[in-house]
Amino acid sequence: MIIALNNKSNLEKIEFESYIKGLESISTEETIILCPTYLNIGAANSSLKIGSQNVSINENGAYTGEISATQLKSYNVQYAIVGHSERREYQRETNEEINLKIKQLLKNDITPILCIGESLKERENNQVKEVLKEELSIAIKDIKEEDKKKIIVAYEPIWSIGTGIIPTNEQIEEVFAEIKKIVPKSKILYGGSANEENIEQLKQIGAIDGYLLGGLSLKLEKLKIFLQKLH
Length: 231
Ligand code: PGA
What we know:
By secondary structure, the chain is α/β, with parallel strands linked by helices.
């Protein structure tokens, strides 16, 4: 399974040094993708697979504060999260920008981990399919079929992220089936409050190819239990 760890804006220099040692000492057969902050990518120097949490829509050039896909590639970054709901909300990231980011990543042979997910209001208004279809179809616009299947999709209901609440298995299965209609060959992750307790419920869902973990990525003892319970 794919286990992507989203550190978000956490772990300072010294903290990260001991964190990465702890993470490397966990023995697991899963594919672990560590997504630290940009600064910690430079310090990772690890046998783990590394992902970023974002990428620029542009190539190298006069774009102050941005990090390009070619720069990420030069630091051996193999994956990049794009379209996380926190960026969609706080940075006002649009589906069209996410599409440009995915194109930059694919051009540089970096695997996009595309986050999509509905808000609670959208779920209550019965708009889940519509919202996810829009997010997904614009994100993959004008991308060749052979490239589409390289994209990993992470279904992260916004109301689940950091709240401790997860959808029912039926709700997740329903959404995964919709995603599969659009990108049948993509791997699909679940993200949003997945932890060492609710994994017992989540693992009943056969369609899940892996997990995107936020809070749990910072709690190595609990992450270890999560990984042990996965199968
Ligand atoms: P969470 O975050 O596991 O803390 O809910 C997941 C995410 O935002 O990717």
